[in-house]
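Q: Could you fold this chain for me?
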Amino acid sequence: MDDRQFEERLKNLKNAYDKMPTVSSTNTILKNISSQEKPIQKRRKLKLPYVASFIGVLLIGGLIGGQLLSQTDFSTGKKETEVSQQPPTEEQIEAAKNELRGLFERKVDELGEKLDFEDVRLYRFVQETNDIVTSFEERTSFINKKELTNHVNKVKDMINRRISLPQEEFDYLIEKVKDEKSVSDEEIFDYMDKLDAIHENLNAIWHGKGYAVQRSGTVEGTDPIYVDMLNSKNVKVGDEAYIQFVENIVDFGYVFYSDKENMIHFEINTDQIIKEFEGEVSEEIIKYLESKSYVRNLKDVSTVSSVEKDIIQKLVTLEQLIIANPTFRNIDDAKSLYRDMVGHFLWNNNNETLAVLPELYPNSEVVPLIEEVKSYKEGEKITYVPEEIRYEIMNNLPNEFLPFGNDQGITLSLFPLTEQMVEVYNLFKGNNEWEALSGIIFYNKGTFELVIARLYLYALANGDYETAYTLTDFSTEKNLPDLGTFKANIIAENIDYYQLSKEVVRASRVQEGQRINYILSKRNGEKVTLQMSLKDGFEKVAYPAFPAFSEEGY
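A: Sure. Below is the predicted structure, expressed as structure tokens.
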């Protein structure tokens, strides 16, 4: 092939490209190009000039083919940009819905198996993820296929992140940092919410099986050393179930510590979060996490003496955080931490030490409380403050520093019940003997009667009206309703107990004589009253339990 023939061949190839339609199928492209080529009759050994010529043809052909292939949908022959801008079909939308629902259900089943917990779908973080999937299922149209694809990918990402073990979600966030993707404060809060959610059941197992007081059995097994062994997953003494449980707790993202009564507890390992994400998230959330770590250290018998010297600075830093960030997502928890710091400072220092804070921070909200404490001690000529006086003094904090509006209740979800609660519930259901309820464990989640209330709601949520009827006090009723009437009245109230559990975040106890009211606070600020009573030495649910619902419905 001489130069003239080479130039003629390139010209023909270019003409073939120019004559092709803008959008074409792969077969058409190849047909148009090959029609301009003469079949090679005989394979020859190429000399250098011919090799260069042939490479030139390949380069030009590659550029042309690459451009066409990158812009073309092979199935339709349409450009990719055109395809993505077309509205998706009903079949495509339905397929996306089925894909997301299937993924969600598989992940929930897997999580239940990994946690060995049957009611895993009652956790709030699972229900909230289900709401996202349901919201997608309710959509009937999308602007184009690109919007559908983007939305599907976002929901998939949410499912994979949220319906997972805590350490899997933590690793997911670490990978984002490695990939130079931003990690938001909300993602950190979500991770912590998951740890909060599963803590109650794990805590009931820890205390219920006596793990909290189990020791290494060696001379050197003092609390600080033993706690270090737990946190390093280096426990050598104990049965296999105990050792595995300890390892799970640490892997999930908790840290063990021992209190002044030598009881061992575990809380969220906020130090680990700070270590991995400081510089990636806001300064505000780092200060909040540091405050949580500090309050834990105040409760830890092995660290309290070494950290107390920093309490003034820590207290003022948290105070400033609360003032500057009134809409902070965990603002009430931040206020609870502040209250704990203030209390520790006021009740564990003499007047001379208390006087240091006003000198350094005269505008601190704690200054008036310090004056009250000093005045009380000097007036009574004592060195301590009784519990009832402490309560009065702490309530003099400004309202913006009182967690949950000075609500002295507890943060909780009504569902799921712990495994131990369900065991007791099934035992009681079988024999209706109140003594069966005496074994209920309610560590950190309120009083015995609040557990009874949760069992009552659990029964109704599962349609077990007989057990709910047995847990009810009818002493105030002139005419005792039979089971059928009770069931009909409950159904008429039309309460979605699972939805109620998802909304309630706090419970507060108010007692008046034999009547006990639990004020259930929702996330949106609304409050619902659940009535209980003391009858024959047992706590029962009053009838009706929700007077407001009986009148208005839910």
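A (continued): The beta strands are 72-73, 78-79, 254-258, 264-268, 410-411, 472-473, 504-512, 515-522, 527-535, 538-542.
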